[in-house]
Amino acid sequence: MRHLTWITALASLLVGACRSSAGSAPVAGLATPEAAVAAYFRAGDEHRSRLVRAAFDPGTPIQWVDPDGTPRALTQIEWWPKLDGPGGGPAASRSQRTLDRSGDLALVEAVSRWDSHGFDDLLLVVRFPGAGWRIVGKVFVRLAPGESAAAADGDEPAIRAVLEQKIAAHAEYDPALLLASHLPGCRYAHVDGTSVVLSTLSEAGARYAARRDAGETDHDSPWRILDVVVRGPIAAAKLDVKWQGRRHVDHLLLVRTAVGWKIAAAAWGPAES
């Protein structure tokens, strides 16, 4: 009987601990894209990776390019200890601007400044049904004091050429063209109002290959490039298309590599919730 009482007490403690842990989440159900970015800002200022885990989907890589054009990526699990470790003080200034919001998709620019340096981020943010908004794509450029990230001559035409290549890949369901316009590690987030499906470029390429093998093409979908925003070696773009009788929006993040601009992350879904 004593043994049974001990087990009951231990079970009660464990249940209580689980409830306490679940109830201590610092941010839950972020209601807007701006709230997700604000939680990300707080994570950096307060050195709390728990806030990043609330603001970001855990599969989201942090992406940039080296000065020689080599693309780099940091996984979330590699990033968290850097946030929790010793660091400098909070940013002298932070700001965010929503470049586009369409349905359950948002494209946000986030700027942070310290006395010694700054960062310009371009972020993909999507709404997860029942779980709020989370960041699913991030590219950034580090800036010197007082520096702003500007486009170089020829950047926008080069980006538009890559976007046209992506559109052609869809029209032909051609995985080789898809790879030519993307980084191999690119991840797609598909939002359909009831779920968010995250897939790798290889998974997207496999779907294309299966359709091509079946003799399918899609030359009738009227894709449009609506906007291109360039911030030095990173960029964002908005496309739309009439697909399956409904207007869809495609938000893309790009980086300028040694071999040209490449799509690094993407999110797409219906233009209206």
Quaternary class: single chain
By helix and strand content, what is the structural category? Answer: alpha+beta
The number of distinct structural domains comes to 2
Main sheet strand line-up? 2-1-6-5-4-3
Task: Describe what you observe in this structure.
This protein is α+β, with helices and mostly antiparallel strands and 273 residues long. The chain has two domains: 33-143, Nuclear Transport Factor 2, Chain: A, CATH 3.10.450; 155-270, Nuclear Transport Factor 2, Chain: A (Roll). It has seven helices and twelve strands. The protein has a six-stranded mixed beta sheet. It has a six-stranded mixed beta sheet with strand order 8-7-12-11-10-9. A hairpin with a 5-residue loop joins strand 1 (62-65) and strand 2. Helix 2 runs antiparallel to helix 3 (49-55) and helix 3 (49-55) runs antiparallel to helix 4. It is globular. The model is unreliable at 1-26 (pLDDT under 50).
Summarize the structure.
The chain is built from 7 helices and 12 strands. The protein is of the alpha+beta class and 273 residues long. The strands form 2 sheets. It has a 6-stranded mixed β-sheet with strand order 2-1-6-5-4-3. It has a 6-stranded mixed β-sheet with strand order 8-7-12-11-10-9.
